[in-house]
Design brief:
The structure is a single chain. The protein has 23 helices and nine strands. The protein is an alpha+beta fold and about 675 residues long. The protein folds into four domains: about 140 residues, no CATH class; about 200 residues, no CATH class; about 110 residues, Tetratricopeptide repeat domain (Serine Threonine Protein Phosphatase 5, Tetratricopeptide repeat, Alpha Horseshoe); about 110 residues, Alpha-Beta Plaits, CATH 3.30.70. Strands 5, 6, 7, 8 and 9 form a five-stranded mixed beta sheet that branches. Helix 23 links the parallel strand 7 and strand 8. The protein is globular, with a radius of gyration of 30 Å.
Length: about 675
């Protein structure tokens, strides 16, 4: 009911002003000039809504028409001049907010005029009075919905681990000392997370410091203090303006979801300001992210130990490399045990420390090669070490005072207990879906002689990976590439390429490129992994080629292939004509996996451009649970995605697009349980 609270003051305000209108001079209703002004003021919010709708659509279309290459250059230009961009963009963001406030005041005055007019119109008609009163209340609702109320995170929620100062005086003492040195005066709350990271969330008057339990265990006390200096530097008085804009953006993008049926009206009435603010904030954030991190690094050098700061940054880099290389070697299945293990985090910490011992030399060799990615939010470790004046890669031992070490051990025990308890709630279901079912599937597949078929091998690879049998999964990729037509083995190429790249083997690039060039389903993740590999390993020539391919493939996806993922009322839909035998073959497979739960199958052609179209299958079910229907759709998707011929397919559930009435297109029905194949 909280979402409707603003309706009460909105209606009461409209009603009060309407009552005031009842006492307006009786001649107002007969004065054509006053009446004309009141009518005009009543229509103004509607005119403003129309303006915002037209402008908002044109603004979005203008952004969508901008090529990916042009947008990339636009963003990079702002990053190159980040110091000037930071100040200019902050001023622009503040200006948009102030104009939004002025616009909101104008809307309030217009709503007040409508309410007064409602009272004046009471003499003419009760119905007119009610309609104007309702219209005024709606506009008031839009106005009151723009009141920026910041919500603080609740610290008693089940998914939050809050460390109290009473139980963790050493951690809080270090946090208060670091905050004081960099000029942060807000209340500090330490939240424990399960990773090897640190972050800070700014609320009004409060800093939520997030510390990962892995980070606490691998950092020495001096290293942690440097990390705290870095984080609290982000929250210093010098960055207050930037933090306020971040909080306003979060409210802007999240708070509007509180409004149900009025959401579109409220949002569209402000789209002129909100669209501009969101885009300009994105530019500001992109342009200044790296220099903000560099400024925070300076705090480590100014108030902490340079040696400890460099060691802390190096350990964070090691964790990135550890995560990059995870999943390419065989490992124990996470859900093999019948109940959650109470030492999951301790094993994660031990495995990470073991990996450092084994891979430290190889990782160190990459430090000086890394290239800053175009989408990077942090400087490379090389840039950070050079700024600190450090040329030797050296890590400090994870040690501290006895009291400090005791707190870290207590934090680990707390994290283990909380994580274990959380995992219990869904462990049985998770184990069934992600261990027992895959294990049964692989055992059946093994007993059958480990066959490789186009429509099934992707699930085999996925299940082997869930079981931690990553080397065997890669062997299946090799077999699929060797035994199946290229169009059917693109998933295998993609997975093989990713495995090689995560082992820092450059041969993986061509495997990934082969997959993403011909199947857009792998495009985004494929480009990410190739780009990260090139940046990590300092391959400038390959990175230049990657960026050219990324722009070309991304533009093609935006202009053509992405449109195959949805249907709209504006689509060019018509009867599909497939090559001889293709439809019969596809229908045969669908029937083999349908379990007699499909009522109708529709087929349409969606023409996206003069050179690109997709064959759209719509499946209408007649029975089965949601899970069973999803399994059938998954099997059909895998089959179509690995079809041996180069052909674009799209797959949808009929009920999601019944409103489009695709069944009204002549010849769209290609199979029906009732036998009325090919009829409307």
């Amino acid at each position: 009911m909280k979402r409707y609270v603003r309706c009460i003051p909105s209606f009461l305000t409209a009603l009060a002003l309407s009552i005031a209108g009842l006492f307006a001079p009786g001649g107002w209703i007969n004065d054509i000039r006053i009446l004309g002004i009141l009518i005009f003021l009543s229509v103004c919010p509607l005119l403003l809504l129309i303006f915002n709708l037209i402008w908002g659509r044109s603004y979005l279309k203008r952004l969508q028409r901008t090529s990916i290459a042009s947008m990339r250059q636009y963003m990079l230009r702002h990053r190159e001049h980040a110091a000037q961009t930071a100040a200019a963009k902050l001023r622009q963001l503040r200006r948009i907010r102030r104009l939004t406030v002025a616009y909101t005041v104008l809307l309030w005055l217009l709503a007040a005029a409508i309410a007064v007019f409602a009272g004046v119109a009471r003499e003419v008609s009760n119905l007119l009075w009610a309609l104007l009163l309702l219209w005024s209340a709606v506009v008031f609702y839009a106005v009151y919905s723009r009141i920026h109320r910041e919500k603080k995170q609740r610290l008693d929620e089940e998914d939050v681990i809050c460390l109290t100062e009473q139980d963790y005086p050493q951690l809080y003492s270090a946090a208060h000392r670091a905050a004081g040195l960099v000029g942060c005066r807000d209340e500090i709350v330490i939240l424990l997370t399960f990773d090897c990271n640190a972050g800070i969330v700014m609320e009004k008057g409060r800093c939520l410091l997030q510390l990962g339990i892995v980070l606490l265990h691998v950092m020495s006390q001096d290293e942690l203090f440097c990390v705290l200096l870095h984080e609290f530097s982000h929250a210093s008085e010098a960055n207050r303006d930037a933090h306020y804009e971040n909080r306003y953006l979060n409210w802007l993008t999240n708070a509007q979801s509180e409004h149900p049926w009025l959401l579109r009206f409220v949002g569209n009435l402000y789209s002129f300001f909100d669209f501009r603010y969101i885009f300009q904030h994105m530019v500001y954030e992109y342009a200044t992210a790296v220099i903000q991190e560099q400024e925070a690094d300076r705090a480590m050098a100014a108030y902490g130990s340079t040696e400890a700061a460099a060691s802390a940054l190096l350990k964070l880099y090691y964790d990135n490399m550890y995560l990059w290389e995870s999943g390419v070697k065989d490992e124990e299945p996470l859900l093999k045990a019948e109940s959650p293990t109470p030492d999951f985090l301790a094993n994660r910490i031990a495995d990470f420390q073991k990996a450092i011992g084994e891979r430290q030399g190889a990782w160190n060799a990459l430090v000086w090669k890394e290239i800053l990615a175009n989408n990077a939010s942090h400087p490379t470790l090389k840039m950070r070490l050079e700024a600190l004046g450090v040329t030797e890669l050296k890590t400090l031992q994870s040690s501290g005072s006895a009291a400090y070490d005791q707190e870290i051990r207590k934090a680990l025990d707390t994290a283990e207990a909380v994580l274990c308890e959380r995992r219990k709630t869904s462990y049985e279901t998770d184990r069934e879906e992600n261990y027992l079912a895959p294990l049964k599937h692989i055992e059946t597949w093994t007993a059958a002689g480990k066959p490789i078929s186009a429509e099934d091998y992707a699930d085999v690879i996925a299940d082997l990976r869930l079981l931690g049998r990553n080397e065997e999964a890669e062997a299946v990729c090799d077999r699929a590439i060797a035994e199946l037509p290229e169009a059917s083995s693109l998933y295998a190429s993609y997975m093989k390429g990713c495995s090689l790249l995560h082992r820092f083997d450059e041969k993986g690039m061509e495997y990934v490129y082969r997959a993403i060039e011909k199947n857009s389903n792998f495009l985004d993740e494929g480009l990410d992994v190739v780009g990260a590999f090139c940046c990590y390993t300092g391959r400038e020539a390959e990175l230049s080629d990657y960026r050219e391919r990324a722009a070309r493939l991304g533009q093609k996806n935006m202009d053509e292939t992405s449109h195959a993922n949805y249907l709209t009322k504006h689509d060019r839909l018509e009867k599909e004509h497939m090559p001889d035998g293709m439809l019969e073959k596809i229908l045969g497979y669908i029937h083999s996996v349908s379990d007699d739960r499909i009522q109708n199958i529709y087929l349409l052609r969606k023409t996206i451009s003069e050179t690109f179209f997709t064959s759209v299958f719509l499946i209408q079910f007649s029975g089965g649970t949601d899970r069973q229907q999803k399994e059938i759709l998954h099997k059909i998707f895998c089959y179509l995605d690995s079809y041996p011929e180069e052909w674009q397919f799209s797959l949808f559930e009929f009920s999601d697009y019944a409103w489009l009435r695709p069944d009204k297109i002549e010849g769209s029905l290609v199979w029906s349980k009732s036998g009325q194949t090919g009829k409307r």
